[in-house]
Amino acid sequence: MIRFKLSQKMGEHKLTQKDVSKGTGIRPDTISEYYYETSKSPFLRHMNEFCKFFKCQPGDLLEYEEKMIRFKLSQKMGEHKLTQKDVSKGTGIRPDTISEYYYETSKSPFLRHMCKFCKFFKCLPGDLLEYIDDIDDTDKEPK
Questions:
Q1: Which of 11, 48, 92, 101 is the least crowded, having the fewest Cβ atoms under 10 Å away?
Q2: Do 106 and 93 meet the contact criterion of CB atoms below 8 Å apart?
């Protein structure tokens, strides 16, 4: 599955969806679809606007992912306009570990960390985790 990492980019820059909409000229509801990764496919003109706004390359906004369960720390941080340092201080979790969760390079989140994140963000574990249905049967190539 290819992921669009707008929420991660916004978190890095401490921006709201409204900030990105104003900066790119893309409608707020469309920004929301990209942020929550509910858009079926990004338009190239939107990708161009995002790249200009964030001064980045398309590859900085896209990622191929085979994982079936996603840890959405970067999205939560973006919603609250927090840095990795803020979350580390608030949870007591080492900055290097926060970075692994943020970039989703951690092999699996520790339960004790999950509890700290839930307490910090005042949320439930389901707010931090997402099941990804990689490919349904209609999208498979014939053999």
A1: 92
A2: no
- Quote the CA–CA distance of 12 and 22 in Å, as a whole number: 18
Q: What domains sit in the chain, N to C, each tagged with a CATH number?
A: 2-64 (1.10.260.40), 69-131 (1.10.260.40)
Q: What does the pLDDT read at residue 41? A: 72
102 φ/ψ angles, rounded to the nearest 5 degrees:
-60, -45
Count of residues in the chain: 143
CA dihedral 131, 12, 57, 39 (to 10 degrees): 40
Q: Which residues contact 97 (CB under 8 A, 6 or more apart)?
A: 106, 113
| Token pair 């498979």 in the structure block, residue | 140
- According to DSSP, the residues that pair with 73 across neighbouring strands are none
